[in-house]
Design goal:
This protein is 70% helix and 0% strand. It is an all-alpha fold. The two termini are 42 Å apart.
Amino acid sequence: MKRLLPLLFRALFILNVGLTLGNVGLWLSAMRQDLFWRADFTALYTGGTLVQEGQGAHLYDFDVQTRYQQKILEGRSFKDGLLPFDYPPHTALFFAPLSYLPRVVAFDLWLIVQLALLTWLVRLLLDLTVEWSAQERWLLLSAVLALPPLLLTFMLGSFSLLLLLCLLKFYQTLKHGMEPNSGWWLVLGSLKPQSILLPGLILIGAWRWRAVKVIVFAGIALLVICVLMLSPQVWVDFIKTILKVGGLFDKMGVVLVDMYNFKGLLASVLGKDSLILISGASLVALFAAAGGTLWIWHFSWDTSEPEFELRLALTMGLGLFFSLHLYPQDSLMWVAPALLCYIYLRRRALPRKGYALFVLTWPLLMLLEQFGFQGRLGIRVPILAMAVLLCWMGWLLSVSRLNRRDLENEAF
């Protein structure tokens, strides 16, 4: 087995490098076929255009969105006529400057921003793993770059890369005691708030009030700015839109069985006729995960302990798995909890080669799901992998707590 493992790691590295090159080829092919209009970016651009043209009061009016979006797409349209803008109001303000440019030019500019973010991500990963061996670092980078969600992020113009950076910087700033800065990273992540909900609860559960103050003051400022610049009703309209979109099934781009989360799992197993049950169970699970997060973090706060990485990894994993809205491109954010769990194993000097083999196969599993299985197995294979990782982290935390309790009893 000792001789086999190096060969397996080498094979996975070669495979992931090949997948990375294949992703580049797929992106170039999509560009030649002019497929980028069918993207998250179009919804974001629609919201920015409404703001830029003084239609902020109608930002969440789907009829108005439809007219503007079909005009933007020059006659083309999505299924059901609209890919709705259902992000927070300040996300539309964020994208408004890009809407002054033609859609194609704006997408190209956003692509440059995405490439800059990817460069930043690579540098950040190298900074976080400076103590690792060269082999470990190369394997990490090969797996991240090979992930199909990274390809989808570039093809769709989504926020996934930015949100992954927010999660990793949130960890890095907390690790170095810069708690107010960690709050600012969550504020930036609020461009797509469901992804940073549970990390935000960490700060409450652990009584990190300096960071909480940053989030509260920034949140009030964003609320007031959006009311003044868009409409007094805009936040109420946003909440109504979230509730409306949450009740859709295979309409306006909401395809539950395509989601890589608990809600997608339920949709695959229970089917369209169980929408009320799916929505209710997903909401209950999210509240349970929120309660679990507060409980996990009410223990001592010591960022120098390896358990800090494990607790943070589990919290991020819970937030992603039980998010109410997580498509394949958004699963790029799983890099953060997977990385932090490996850091924990490494710092504890625990066996980690099996774990490394498991997470290094994710690019292949996601590729097979996307272009092979496509849900034909009755459940999305990546969801199973994410559930296994979540249980793995939960088990590690339980063992760590039991070991700590035993040591405390012996000391007593």
